[in-house]
């Protein structure tokens, strides 16, 4: 690898173009291999110092600091950013000063020095407003949001991250939009809005600039794993966490590796595989100790204590509980002395007022168009996720998600609910005699007829193939039977001859009324039994489930 890098080292003597070329390659490697980026940037720094090119020295120091911060060498990163800041002040470059403060803020944030981090973010933000650096506003909003996130103040975190998302949309920068959406998704997961978080993550994944943003892809996989873990979907959680871990290995992100190992440990623990959990958590602890991250070590010691206790190893369980308690006390002291002070709050409010004024000066039309486009994209994502592509009615996924919620509401109301299974009769013959294209048209027109006979509160979903399910909340069996009979009649009397000469279409319907002791599976089985009866008795009719056979 070093031999490859040597091709980009500035020669002796060298000109500005050689240093610029070296920095360009260092910047290219920054997101995929930070160690190589540091080697090149240090070479560029030495050459720039010899040439007395202060602007290039600052660029090199910034890149070194950013790389050191990514691989969690935060103390050395602080030194690099401080040197860059001193030099940028000498040449009165406010843009680079703002960037230096941002780097310092990220380092202090990583060290959980909240007060220092906030002061650095505010310094960066105030300098950015002097030159209207929209990109820097976004970074600062994200950073301040992350500070609140670290302290579990998710409402404030959500506010600042949402502001960052809106600025990124206004800036029309796909890469920044991806970054802001990732931060917002993390907060949505913590407030347990899993559905919106998942949609946002999948949308972000579609727009990632790869392979440059492999580390972000790792984050997406990790967050999707957390969502799957919360839903007790062990198989998907395992796949997502493993994919995230492999990507973090690829990008040499020790922080990312640690997070993934903790999550794999949590997954194994929930599956009662405590020995497997301990292996993952011990690996995570080694990385966290190397990173000197007290917060991670506290979290891991607590998890290890629980798992050793579950294995009956009470000595190790106690040792790790002591480790957890020691870090807990340290962090409590740190939190107590590192509260956000009144000066910081006042500066933050003043900066926000400036930003609101700057924002109002930008084209409102552009923002509204962007929001409209974003809304349309989210609607398309929702339609794709919850609607059947052929008929446009809800799909099985939507039914599986909405029926339990609806049934829970009906239980609380002590109300009634009916479910109707609908099957298009002899549908295979329609496909065989008239073609699959005609069969598709039958389902499209048929579902449209059915939908016209439903209320807004009803759920009509395609269950699979030629089967549909209609859920009728707050209706008893007598009303459900009338609705089913009306549907049967409307399908039978429809002019199917216009679709294909000689085509006749009928449906069979099985209806069941929910009883308080019934599960969803039992309700579906009851309706299915009634449907079987309707088909067995000659099709093109409605049958009601009468209860289990005596």
Automatic annotation (TrEMBL):
One of its GO terms (molecular function) is diguanylate cyclase activity. Its EC number is 2.7.7.65. It is an enzyme of class 2 (transferase). Pfam families: GGDEF (PF00990), TPR_12 (PF13424). It comes from the Bacteria. CDD domains: GGDEF (cd01949). Transmembrane segments: none annotated. InterPro entries: Diguanylate_Cyclase, GGDEF_dom, Nucleotide_cyclase, Rev_trsase/Diguanyl_cyclase, TPR-like_helical_dom_sf, TPR_rpt. Residues 271-301, 348-384 form a coiled coil. PANTHER family: DIGUANYLATE CYCLASE DGCM-RELATED, REGULATORY COMPONENTS OF SENSORY TRANSDUCTION SYSTEM. This is diguanylate cyclase. It comes from Chitinibacter fontanus.
